[in-house]
Structure formats: structure tokens, C-alpha cells
Amino acid sequence: MKLDRAHLAELLQESLPTDGSLFVVDLTVSDAIRPKVTVTLDSEQALGIDECAQVSRRLARRVDEVYGEDASYTLEVTSPGAHQPLRDPRQYTRHVGRSLALKLQDGTEKTGALEATEAEGIQLAEVVKEKNKKKTLPAAFIPYSEIQEARVVISFK
């Protein structure tokens, strides 16, 4: 049995809450005898295990209806880990006030506080080193289209 990723994406969208509180960050289907379907969800607010479990149950029911109850697959519905990059502009909202490490399309890297999010990009107050001191620059606009990768900097202070 082969699970169709595009069809799974449709079933997944139907399994999400109708209020738009959750969105899909990633959907992967392994190419194995018993495929593993991995769904990564996120929210602009906090995302808990209860929301993941609810979507998992809904999606499993829909997959069973379409592919039959004898379909052999493993389903994992999860939230992004702290180590995973931000992939969707909606993910940035929850991290306003936190420090981000950015890799831009032109190869440059920036680290600083996420001051605000906008429809087309973010406001980042970059931290630069100057003569063994750290200096925070005024917030500058960075379009999402220029961000190759963004990660939240985890601080244990």
C-alpha cells in the first residue's frame, strides 16, 4: 500500500480545528513497507499534547476511511522542537521578545531580538560585537523572503 502525500495533506487539513488555531508546518511520509506519516503542527499561541492527540485521532479516522482499516502505517503528530527552524511566518509571532539566529539568502548571519512581526517580514534588533562589547542595533526590517533559516536561540540564563 502506498500512501499519497497530497491526499494525506488534504485529509490533514480536514482534521485541523476549523477556528484556524493550528497550522501544518511539515508533513512527511517515509518510503517504507510500513510507512511512517509524520505531521508537525504549530500555533501562534501555545500548542499542547491534547491538540496534537485530537488531530491525530481525527486524521487516523480519515485515513482508515480512505485506505481501509487494514492499512499499515505509523502516525506521529507532534509540535516543532526547540532545535527545529521556523518554517512558517505564523511561527514567528509566538517568539516576539526572544532571540533569533538568522541565516539570510545572501549567506550573512544575524542574531538579535525579535521585536515584532509584520505581514511581509520581521523587525530584528541585531546584536553585534564591537571591541569585545556587544551592541544592540535599532530594529531593522527583514523580509521573510530573505530568510533562509531562522532558529530560536535557547538561553539557560
Shape: elongated
- The sequence of SSEs as H and E is HEEHEHEEEEEE
Biggest sheet record:
6 strands, antiparallel
Tally of individual helices:
3
Number of beta strands: 9
Low-confidence stretches: none
Gap from first CA to last CA:
50 Å
Q: Which descriptors would you attach to this protein?
A:
38% strand; 157 residues; three-stranded mixed β-sheet; alpha+beta; elongated; 3 helices; six-stranded antiparallel β-sheet
Secondary-structure map with pairings?
Layout: H1 5-15, E1 22-29, E2 36-43, H2 49-67, E3 74-78, H3 89-92, E4 99-104, E5 109-117, E6 121-130, E7 133-136, E8 140-143, E9 147-152
Parallel strand pairs: 2-3
Antiparallel strand pairs: 1-2, 4-5, 4-9, 5-6, 6-7, 6-8
Detailed description of the structure:
This protein has 157 residues and is of the alpha+beta class. It has helices at 5-15, 49-67, 89-92, and strands spanning 22-29, 36-43, 74-78, 99-104, 109-117, 121-130, 133-136, 140-143, 147-152. The protein starts with a helix and ends in a 5-residue tail after the last strand. Helix 1 packs across helix 2. Strands 4, 5, 6, 7, 8 and 9 form a six-stranded antiparallel β-sheet that branches. It has a three-stranded mixed β-sheet with strand order 1-2-3, with helices on one face. It contains three helices and nine strands.
